[in-house]
Amino acid sequence: MSNDVVVALDVGGTGMKCALVKPDGTVVHAERHPTLAQRGPEAVTANILDIADGLAGRARAEGLEPVAVGLVVPGVIDEENGVAVWSSNVGFRDVPMRELMQERLGLPTAVGHDVRAGGLAEARLGAGVSERHVLFIAIGTGIAAAHVVDGKAEAGAHGAAGEVGHIVVRPGGPACLCGGRGCLEAVASASAVGRRYVELSGEAGVTAYDVATRAAAGEELANRVWTEAVEAFADGLLTAQALYDAGIIVLGGGLAEAGEALLAPLRTALQARITFHRMPQIVRAALGDTAGCLGAALLALDHLEVTQ
């Protein structure tokens, strides 16, 4: 129906991106809210349900018909059963989000992983729209990926597929929050780049964006830190390409905001490492920080097709 919309919510550690989205991907209303994670998982859950209910009410008030809900969160997600198994960012432990949402709104609900949803959106609506095999990698506080084939992102046997941030690229290297050492995200994530520069310079508060800007301006230390991160990332991508054989790698998240300052040396470094693998295209994400929310809408629409 032309007035059908889905309620889409992308829940992060600090904020929520929410929207009413038509089946063709058109966003008819968007809003943002704080997650309020510091209040604890029960308060976060109540907040999510209240916001979703408010969006559904707004849709009806505007003559639209909410037909489904899509909710994506970080962490380990049991997508089949709609359970947020574990999420350190928002404190979830085995929260039955689908059941709770369906009880509150009376609408079919899909629950998914934020990065897989972002990858789904980039593959179907964004930078990977012309490719069948898309590897979407989000580089922010951590690093995670979504492998999308023919418009479908695989979650894996335990809901943890795509954790390329935990490929070990520097054995014995910096400690990672996962408990390992030398993981890609401990070396080349946005937080790791900023942290490394601060360690070497003693200057507090420097971010990865600052490092990229200073490296582009010719600062020697910034260039060294940036190059270290790019080289490590290329090592991780080589392993990822051996596993996924992507036609295109789409980079999103905070570090990708550096644009060609990241992409150009990364292409060169990966090309130098490639042996029998095919060199993928490496491009910047097209949808920015709305990808997760749009992906949530796509999950809702896909779920609706299955349940009808």
Describe this structure in words.
This is Sugar kinase. InterPro entries: ATPase_NBD, ROK. Keywords: Kinase, Transferase. By secondary structure, the protein is an alpha/beta fold. Helices cover 40% and strands 24% of the residues. The chain contains nine helices and 13 strands. It has helices at 41-61, 97-105, 114-125, 184-188, 190-201, 208-216, 220-244, 260-273, 291-307; strands at 4-11, 15-21, 27-34, 65-73, 76-78, 83-87, 92-95, 109-113, 133-139, 143-149, 152-153, 248-252, 281-284. Strands 3-2-1-4-8 form a five-stranded mixed β-sheet, with helices on both faces. The protein has a five-stranded mixed β-sheet with strand order 11-10-9-12-13, sandwiched between helices. It has a three-stranded antiparallel β-sheet with strand order 5-6-7. β12 (248-252), α8 and β13 (281-284) form a beta-alpha-beta unit. It is globular, with a radius of gyration of 20 Å. It starts with a strand and ends with a helix.
The gist of it:
This protein is an alpha/beta fold and 308 residues long. It has helices at 41-61, 97-105, 114-125, 184-188, 190-201, 208-216, 220-244, 260-273, 291-307, and strands spanning 4-11, 15-21, 27-34, 65-73, 76-78, 83-87, 92-95, 109-113, 133-139, 143-149, 152-153, 248-252, 281-284.
Q: Tell me what portion of residues adopts beta-strand conformation.
A: 15-25%
Task: Name the strands of the widest sheet in spatial order.
Answer: 3-2-1-4-8
Describe the main β-sheet briefly: 5 strands, mixed
Average pLDDT: 95
Structural class by secondary-structure content: alpha/beta
Query: How many strand segments?
Result: 13
Q: Summarize the helix and strand pattern as letters.
A: EEEHEEEEHEHEEEHHHHEHEH
Distance between the termini: 14 Å
Helix content: 40-55%
Radius of gyration: 20 Å
Shape by Cα distribution: globular
Low-confidence segments: none
Tally of individual helices: 9
